[in-house]
Structure to design on (207 residues):
């Protein structure tokens, strides 16, 4: 089921970003990004139900309870943007997806960059608590996140530009008088590889 779930997410992502780029899907905000992706996932995922006792399902804003507090909510409660299940009478395979969609006109910097790493941290927690597969996906029309020459010294830790690598265990800190959030340390290493179009950029990261 792992390979099927991966195919569902990877193929749905490719369909989504190409349809947005070509204009057959219009996305103006994060909610629209979430809904359009969920629609594609649902219809494609059902094609991967190979037998009568298999079922693929999509749930938005799924509430879950964690064993320990998350950095995002500060509690042991969390809400997953898109939650997928592929199951039969013997097996249940679960996948969590967190999404971001940043518009240039809503330039909320540098806090947007912090929020990306906070989502990745949450996904690592989900995976450690029984969710089989996790993804972080972002879309933007702002090259600031993708090919910006550099960031300020105070917030340069929060960097997911194209081809940048994060090494597990590295502490990410706001070096400002009033930090937006607490330090973040991720458990795994990552390389950020963006899909780039003329004025749109997308990133899919498996956590």
């Amino acid at each position: 089921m792992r390979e099927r779930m991966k195919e569902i997410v990877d193929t749905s992502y490719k369909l989504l970003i190409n349809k947005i780029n070509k204009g057959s899907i219009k996305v103006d905000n994060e909610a629209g990004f979430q809904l359009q992706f969920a629609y594609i996932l649902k219809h494609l995922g059902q094609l991967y139900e190979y037998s009568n006792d298999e079922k693929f399902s999509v749930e938005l804003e799924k509430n879950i309870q964690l064993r320990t507090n998350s950095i995002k909510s500060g509690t042991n409660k969390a809400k997953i943007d898109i939650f997928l299940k592929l199951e039969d009478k013997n097996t249940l395979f679960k996948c969590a997806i967190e999404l971001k969609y940043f518009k240039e006109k809503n330039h909320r910097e540098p806090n947007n960059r912090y929020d990306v790493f906070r989502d990745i941290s949450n996904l690592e927690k989900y995976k450690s608590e029984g969710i089989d597969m996790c993804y972080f996906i972002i879309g933007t029309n702002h090259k600031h996140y993708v090919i910006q020459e550099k960031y300020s010294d105070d917030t340069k830790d929060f960097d997911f530009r194209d081809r940048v690598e994060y090494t597990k265990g590295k502490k990410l800190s706001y070096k400002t008088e009033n930090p937006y959030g607490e330090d973040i340390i991720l458990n795994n290493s990552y390389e950020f590889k963006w899909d780039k179009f003329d004025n749109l950029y997308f990133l899919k990261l498996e956590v």
About this structure: The chain is about 25% helix and 30% strand. The beta strands are 55-65, 77-87, 92-102, 133-140, 165-166, 171-172, 184-185, 190-191, 194-196, 201-206.
